[in-house]
Structure formats: structure tokens, C-alpha cells
Amino acid sequence: MELFALDLGNKQTKLKSAKAEYVWPSQILNRADQPQQLSSFKTNDHLHDFNVPFDPNTWAWGPDLASLRLDDYLQDTLMHQDRYINDAFKLLANFALGVLAKDFPVAKKEILEVIVVAGVPTDDYQSQAQRDALGAVLKGQHQVELDGQTYTIRVTKVLIIPQPVGTFYELLLDDQANVVRDELLDEKVGIVDVGGGTVLVDTLLNFGLDLRDRRQYATGANDLYEAIASQIEGSVSLYQVEKLVRTGLPTHEFAYQFSKNHVVDVTALVAKEITNFSQRLVRNLKSTFKDIQTIDTLIMTGGAANLIDQKVITDFFETALFLPDSELANVRGFYKYGLTKLEGESHG
């Protein structure tokens, strides 16, 4: 029995198995919407073709989907209601299983049996209907054709947990699921998960969710990208704005490329909007945590946590903890959570 962990975010999809980790965008492209290539000279090695029995189309998905510059044709899974019953989400979930399965040779010839751990926002976790909808998408047998090779996966069990639990387990446990930071078990821990579509603020107290100090805000990184895009003259793509922000972070130099001959320096604009985004986050935290002094540890995590101006946050809470691999923290924690369940079953 193998273990798959899925973090199917609004902007990024993070995947983990015993073999590999992946971070891919949460958009897919119908190959029918892609112009036919005139030759084989120019190919994108980072895009893959996917087919599933319940959909007649061939779909492209991969880590560098934005490089095609076909933004108007991308199928986006970013939404705040009924996400798990959306057709694009169902495709994305099946493709994700296929990506993880391709690293296991048995999936080519037989049926790969797996347990899946998936995380959802706390609001979704509290809804039985939402959990049932996601479970229905993931559980059962899946057949995914990836670049012409068919992989068969049978999901025997789906474990759905609140997203903040993922980051908590990532800090609490080592890679063998041994407790390495047991002090967290007795602390009041605030977890701020900054994603593409939402900011989730949760509190764990005595290893349980404290439903008083928690909120979900629809002010994720997409708000930052929209604010930047609205101030760049011309026809601007949100996907390209996201790409320029992420690629410019190491040097803090940002440029929007309309073409190779038309590149606009937007460094000052991006810096200003990152500050605004960070200050808005602090206002939301002040609204959520009525008494921030009662928080022992404040953890900043999520796929967009690295976009935040850390000084703005530490001025509010000086010992805030920024995880170095924040975009992978949840999915790694989901995987560790799954390991504890497998260990419990083996001793049960």
C-alpha cells in the first residue's frame, strides 16, 4: 500500500509520495485550444499530455504551463464555492494521481493501491457535504493516460484533514513521523496559510482546532496579482504577473515582458503592492487574534507566504516563524500525518 499526499490549491498543486514531490500550477489546458505546431523543433519538455476515460479531450499540464502564453485558454480551478464538483477540479485531481503513480512501475501493469491524504480549508472541513464531495472525486479506481502510458490507481481510503494540520505535522514530526518538537503539543499555535485564493488563519490549542481564533479571507495572492496588473498599461495577463513576481523575488527586480522588445520595469510597483498586501494581512490578523499575546508560536505558511514582506509581519509579531519551503509545508505534513495513520494500523 502506497501513500499519496495532495494539496490541490487554488493557484498551485503540491504532490508528494515516497518517490517524489511536485509543485505544478492548478490550471490545465485543452490541447484543442493550442495552435498546431509546424515542426518538432520547438517543444516544451515540461508539459505532459493527459487523458481520462470520463472526458473526451486531451489535456496539457505541467510546471511551466504559463510559458505557452495561452492564458485566455487555461482552465482555472480557482473558486470559492462548489470547487470539488467542478469538472476542471475533477480533471486536476485525476491528473495529480497519475503524476504520482508514474513513479511506481506496478501502476503500468497492474493496479497501484494507495491511501490518499488531502487537506482542505477549515471551513470546508467543517462541512460534511464538502468532505463528501472531495472524497467522491478521489476514492475508487482511476485510469490516467500520461504521455501515452496508462496508469491504474485504486484509492482505497481518503483521509481529509484541515490544511493547518499539515503545517503543524511538518514541524512536529521528522520524515519518519517521530515527534521532534513536542513543545508544540502544549502550545497555542497560530497558523497563517497564505494561498492563491484565500488566507486561512487558524489556531491549534492542545493539539486541537480552536474555532474562536480563526477566519478565512478571500484575499489571497490573486489579489496581489490583480492589483499589480491593474496598474500596468496594456493587455496584461494575471498568469504572467504571477510568473514575474515569483521569478523576480530572489533579486527583488521585477519586469513585465509583453515581448522580447517590449519589457517594462515594474519593480517599484510590485514592491509597493507587496507592502500593501502584507499590511492588509496584518489587519486581518489583528481582527482574528483578539489577544495576540496569548499565541506562543505564529507560523507563516502556504504557497504565497514567500511573497510577504516579512518585516511588516515581524513588526506585528516579532517571533513569527516563516517556513523556508512554505509552499510544500502542508503537503509534507499531510504525508507525515498519513504515515502516523499507517503506523497506527500496523499496530492496531
Count of runs of 4 or more consecutive helical residues = 10
H-E string: EEEEEEEHHEHHEEHEEEEHHEEHEHEH
Return the structural class: alpha+beta
Radius of gyration: 21 Å
**Stretches where pLDDT falls below 50 for ≥5 residues?**
38-42
The proportion of residues in beta strands is 25-35%
Beta strand count: 18
Q: What would you call the shape?
A: globular
Spatial arrangement of strands, main beta sheet: 3-2-1-8-10-9-5-6-4-7
Description:
This protein is an alpha+beta fold and 348 residues long. 33% of the residues lie in helices and 29% in strands. It has ten helices and 18 strands. The longest helix has 22 residues. The radius of gyration is 21 Å and the shape is globular.
What is the topological layout?
Elements: E1 2-8, E2 12-16, E3 21-25, E4 27-30, E5 48-52, E6 55-61, E7 74-76, H1 87-101, H2 106-109, E8 112-120, H3 122-125, H4 128-138, E9 140-146, E10 149-162, H5 163-172, E11 188-194, E12 199-205, E13 208-209, E14 215-217, H6 221-229, H7 238-248, E15 255-259, E16 262-265, H8 267-288, E17 297-301, H9 310-316, E18 321-322, H10 326-346
Parallel strand pairs: 1-8, 8-10, 11-17, 17-18
Antiparallel strand pairs: 1-2, 2-3, 4-6, 4-7, 5-6, 5-9, 9-10, 11-12, 12-13, 12-14, 15-16
Quick tags:
10-stranded mixed beta sheet; 10 helices; 18 strands; 29% strand; alpha+beta; globular; 6-stranded mixed beta sheet; 348 residues
